[in-house]
């Protein structure tokens, strides 16, 4: 006796994901229902539940696939033979271009995911690790080490990623375009990841939780990392970041 297995069309799944993205852009994730997704996808509830257990799992799939595509595009955009600042700029530009193509989904990823509880926490941690791995891979090259740039420590990568994500969310909430924060993002990334940026942090170093208080201590950790500490009087990280009028009291 032959058993006939009915395959679930893959294109239905993509239509459902696209429909969820469209509904998020129209009315937000929280106000979106499975009925909205089904209507926009022109499918049935039965088809929806053949692919996803709930609206939440559909959302997780949408965000995961969007971020995987973002990581793929960022990695492809960086030419390892290009000068270091150019590599950083291309990575940031591609990241912001991807996010700006679906700003509502980007904003929902950052703001709505925590409300999913354990499911959201696991999603956030998983995506953070994927982005950390991407940054560490892009900064782990012999040509960069020759210029004093080392593989990004995990803690530094998380600081950079967390800061950029919050800046993206705030920009969308303020009605801006994500491409408007390109210069600030590029300068922040170069300051954190470049030689002398945060020389006292090293993966697996028990001393990484405390930054040095003086130049001598900074130099010691710089030698430990194999990079040169920024000499006294040189430009610090805060002065590399573009000025925001809201930083001025009374502005």
TrEMBL record:
PROSITE patterns, alphabetized: HTH_TETR_2
Entry keyword set: DNA-binding
DNA-binding region of this protein: 33-52
InterPro entries: Homeodomain-like_sf, HTH-type_TetR-like_transc_reg, HTH_TetR
Residue ranges annotated for the HTH tetR-type domain, each copy included: 10-70
Name this polypeptide is given: AcrR family transcriptional regulator
Chain positions covered by the region annotation Disordered: 202-251
Signal peptide bounds: none
GO MF, one annotated term: DNA-binding transcription factor activity
Sequence intervals crossing the membrane: none
